[in-house]
């Protein structure tokens, strides 16, 4: 397994960006002559960056026996959307980054059925936003994700500079592609499979319960789990393994001492 730090110039954002990639060991790759290595894009939350999953979760240890590449980009505090202040993070990560990654690693699959996306908190929102807003990802997972802003209207009023800079005002946000449930209504074909987990003591738990129920009503294939837990890494490091088990990969858990 190799951990590779890449700095590249983003034409979309007009600046250098960084991304971390975990590339599987040659002994775990079934056939290096093809381009079928599956890829998981793993997204950070509001306080994180491209290093967060590496530092906090030990993700490289979890997948060291598995033929899976992991791509960890950064969106700063931009919620993985094209912001109103002109930073088009959605385009940069959903459209540009897969091409950049494939240029560096031509053995990674470009097929939808072998491209997955997951994230926590803001990254959980981002995973659903990118999966529902493109045809690039077949599976999308959210851990403690911001799956709905209903009931959070005061955020837009209390900090209009930030939230307005990201999404615009509440009226322009509602019904737009940046609202997960509104975007889901427009995703009629080739829908991704969805996974979500949220802790019952998490402040986002009511929103997850509501959003998942609505997605199921809309006919999405959703695997939803909840358990005791709050909004912190202790739980996300546990549940990312559930995500790996859920994905259509030959996930091989590392051997543990009894």
Written account of the structure:
It is a single chain. With 258 residues, this protein is an alpha/beta fold. The protein has a single domain (2-246), classed as Rossmann fold, CATH 3.40.50.1820. Helices cover 34% and strands 20% of the residues. The chain is built from ten helices and eight strands. The protein has an eight-stranded mixed β-sheet with strand order 1-2-4-3-5-6-7-8, sandwiched between helices. The longest helix has 16 residues, at 89-104. The mean pLDDT is 93.
What's the quick description here?
The protein is 34% helix and 20% strand.
Topology:
Elements: E1 2-10, E2 15-23, E3 39-43, H1 52-57, H2 59-62, E4 69-72, H3 89-104, E5 115-120, H4 122-133, E6 139-143, H5 153-158, H6 160-167, H7 170-173, H8 180-185, E7 193-199, H9 205-217, E8 222-227, H10 233-246
Parallel strand pairs: 3-4, 3-5, 5-6, 6-7, 7-8
Antiparallel strand pairs: 1-2, 2-4
EC number: 3.1.1.-
Protein name: Tributyrin esterase
GO molecular function: acyltransferase activity, transferring groups other than amino-acyl groups; hydrolase activity
């Amino acid at each position: 397994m190799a951990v590779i730090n890449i700095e590249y110039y983003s034409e979309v954002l007009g600046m250098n960006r960084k991304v971390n990639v975990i590339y599987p060991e040659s002994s775990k790759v079934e056939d290096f002559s093809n381009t079928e290595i599956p890829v998981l894009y793993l997204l950070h939350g509001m306080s994180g960056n491209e290093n967060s999953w590496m530092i906090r979760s030990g993700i490289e240890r979890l997948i060291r026996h598995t033929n899976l590449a992991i791509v960890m980009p950064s969106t700063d505090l931009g919620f993985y959307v094209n912001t109103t202040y002109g930073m088009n993070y959605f385009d940069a990560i959903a459209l540009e980054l897969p091409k950049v990654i494939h240029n560096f690693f031509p053995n990674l699959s470009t097929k939808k059925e072998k491209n997955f996306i997951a994230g926590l908190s803001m990254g959980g929102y981002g995973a659903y936003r990118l999966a529902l807003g493109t045809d690039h990802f077949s599976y999308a997972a959210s851990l403690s994700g911001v799956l709905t802003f209903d009931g959070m209207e005061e955020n837009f009023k209390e900090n209009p500079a930030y939230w307005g800079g990201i999404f615009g005002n509440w009226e322009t946000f509602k019904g737009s592609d940046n609202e997960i449930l509104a975007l889901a209504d427009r995703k009629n074909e080739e829908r991704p499979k969805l996974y979500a987990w949220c802790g019952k003591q998490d402040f986002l738990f009511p929103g997850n319960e509501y959003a998942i129920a609505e997605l199921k009503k809309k006919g999405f294939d959703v695997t939803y789990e909840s358990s005791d837990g709050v909004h912190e890494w202790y739980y996300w490091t546990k549940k990312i393994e559930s995500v790996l088990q859920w994905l259509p990969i030959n996930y091989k858990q590392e051997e543990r001492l009894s």
